[in-house]
Amino acid sequence: MENKNKTILSTKGLTIGYGPKMVAKDIHFVLEPGVLCGIVGVNGIGKSTLLRTLGRFQPKLSGSIQLEGKNVEDHSPSDLSKKLSVVLTEPPASKNLTVGELIALGRQPYTNWLGNLSPEDQKQVQDSLDAFLLNELKHRKCHELSDGQLQRVLIARAMAQDTPVIILDEPTTHLDLYHKVQILKMLQQLAHDQQKTILFSTHEIDLAIQLCDKILILDGDTNPFGDPCELIEQKHFERLFPMEMVQFDAKTGSFKITK
Ligand SMILES: Nc1ncnc2c1ncn2[C@@H]1O[C@H](COP(=O)(O)OP(=O)(O)OP(=O)(O)O)[C@@H](O)[C@H]1O
Predict the structure, then answer these.
(1) Does residue 232 sit in helix, strand or coil?
(2) Staple 121 to which of 96, 117, 204, 242, CB 3.0 to 4.6 Å?
(3) pLDDT, tens digit, for every residue of 91-139?
(4) Is residue 207 assigned to a domain?
(5) Which residue lies with its CA nearest to atom 8 of ligand 1?
(6) Quick one: which atom of ligand 1 is closest to the CA of 45?
(7) Rounded distance between C-alpha atoms, residue 134 and residue 144, angstroms
């Protein structure tokens, strides 16, 4: 399943932040095609800042980000839009569009300036509608959707963009447990079946442990990265929250309130 020989996205000694303000440093990870990777860490530790930096929405402070063997800064904007798609937490400005129209926007990097869809573009849009169970909602306006439905549409748009790397900021926020699992399983399937590299931030640590191939823990110190089982064995989850409040149970891979 995993392609062990080919790195698609990696960071080395990456420091992120805003102007003079450093948010996190020493971020190292290496991701291959077909890998689902979760980023976890306490509120304000820098998960969104990292994703925004990887997507080039803001500059890194130091270190390197390599995308397909090239510094991410050296990709032209049009090249980048064919390599990396980003789903951020802000709702799209284009919520007045129908589901089909919003997903078709994912094909923008490939269409002419009129935005005409070729048969290949239409196939990608249809495949994305199918994969995220959106056919029945195709003609609905996006502002009429529930949070869970809208989240599926945004991910389907990223799938239609057909980039090897997809980055998502908290794709399961506001969803009930069933729909959190549904979204994460869809992401897992997209990663494994289509060899996409998918990186997302989440507070659902127990679900990430069960579903992700890799996890990056932003902890304000060494930022461990690895297989969920490895990270459990190395007791990294135990150190995530103050023990007097919550404790990690390595047997079940979940957190329990300290009595
Ligand atoms: N535009 C900004 N300018 C300056 N500092 C910012 C900006 N946006 C966020 N920060 C700060 O950067 C730090 C990291 O924020 P970030 O949103 O990346 O954390 P997070 O891990 O995603 O948090 P959460 O889990 O609460 O979403 C915080 O201290 C935050 O206040």
Answers:
(1) helix
(2) 117
(3) 667 778 999 999 999 998 887 777 788 889 999 999 999 999 999 999 9
(4) yes
(5) 49
(6) 21
(7) 14
Domain ranges, residue 20: 9-87+164-257
Report yes or no on 44 lying in a domain. yes
H/E element, 99: helix 99-105
- Burial of 189-211, coded b for 16+ CB within 10 Å and e otherwise, reads ebbbeebbbbbbbbebbebbbeb
State both tokens at 142. Answer: 């996006």
Tell me the pLDDT band of 4, cut-offs 50, 70 and 90. Answer: low
Q: How far is the CA of 23 from the centre of ligand 1 (A)?
A: 8
Q: Is the CB of 242 under 6 A from ligand 1?
A: no
- With a 6 A CB cut-off, is 22 part of the ligand 1 pocket? no
Count structural domains, the chain: 1
Q: Would the ipTM clear 0.90, i.e. be above it?
A: yes
Residue nearest to atom 4 of ligand 1 (CA): 18
Provide the CATH number for the domain around residue 48: 3.40.50.300
CA of 8 to the centre of ligand 1 (A): 26
Within a domain: 143: no
Say if ligand 1 is within 6 A of residue 23 CB.
yes
